[in-house]
């Protein structure tokens, strides 16, 4: 698996890759809602809907029935809104097999058929022929890393919505309301957001020990690497932790303007300058964690020295923080908090 956390079969390539939409222009009140604006339109006059994103504008003329999602996040929102995509990416990684568990459970609850998994070519491109064969009415790549070339090829198949500004970065409220607008289910989307927010707030209240702890979130140190990747505030992982009471490291926040990526690579020689009381990471294997902690420079970093760190070895929870959606949050927030709480006491 390369990093940071991106596409799924390559989530392993990327999750480390590991590793947005809707402003309707003036003409589209529904999209304005997606950005938090006010709408004078009703559901009956939602379409045509024009969505603005990093590669321009996409107009959707009628309610989509066949949805393909690329990247992460959007599939959860589509399912949470009661629809089943016809194509999604593969999320296999560690103890996660093909589909994210909360997504699979929701599809089964809806009585739907699990969607086809989008494949990649040997050249690392989406299998555009496969996507074409799925005959989608819309392609949602709101949280993805699609290139402009990908976007142009996808728009030849169906109206395609790309990410808002930065690849693999999105805001839960904006993305959820955007997808809700596209599916003409904006009120339902708002309710889902309210429920997710309430679940997080209840969990935060149950874990006052998180309050005020300065944290960093990154990944493990690979063989031969001389820098540690840390997620920036634009990455959904960081705001989720903040909602639980943690405080993003100001030294990481300061790196936000230095890159277009959703993460920053901090050289190990400079890691000691990064303020952190609690470090969170993910790994493929326990050996990844051992190798990371054994590095002489990392071992001298404050949170490691103070035994105040947590590495996700449950890939389900790592996924849950990677794209915290209105579907994954109710399903995992308690397990996530319990996992972090098991390591936080050493900090306080």
From TrEMBL:
<dbReference type="Pfam" id="PF01497">
    <property type="entry name" value="Peripla_BP_2"/>
</dbReference>
<keyword id="KW-0813">Transport</keyword>
<protein>
    <submittedName>
        <fullName>Iron complex transport system substrate-binding protein</fullName>
    </submittedName>
</protein>
<dbReference type="GO" id="GO:1901678">
    <property type="term" value="P:iron coordination entity transport"/>
</dbReference>
<keyword id="KW-0732">Signal</keyword>
<feature type="signal peptide">
    <location>
        <begin position="1"/>
        <end position="29"/>
    </location>
</feature>
<comment type="similarity">
    <text>Belongs to the bacterial solute-binding protein 8 family.</text>
</comment>
<feature type="domain" description="Fe/B12 periplasmic-binding">
    <location>
        <begin position="66"/>
        <end position="344"/>
    </location>
</feature>
<dbReference type="InterPro" id="IPR002491">
    <property type="entry name" value="ABC_transptr_periplasmic_BD"/>
</dbReference>
<dbReference type="GO" id="GO:0030288">
    <property type="term" value="C:outer membrane-bounded periplasmic space"/>
</dbReference>
<dbReference type="InterPro" id="IPR051313">
    <property type="entry name" value="Bact_iron-sidero_bind"/>
</dbReference>
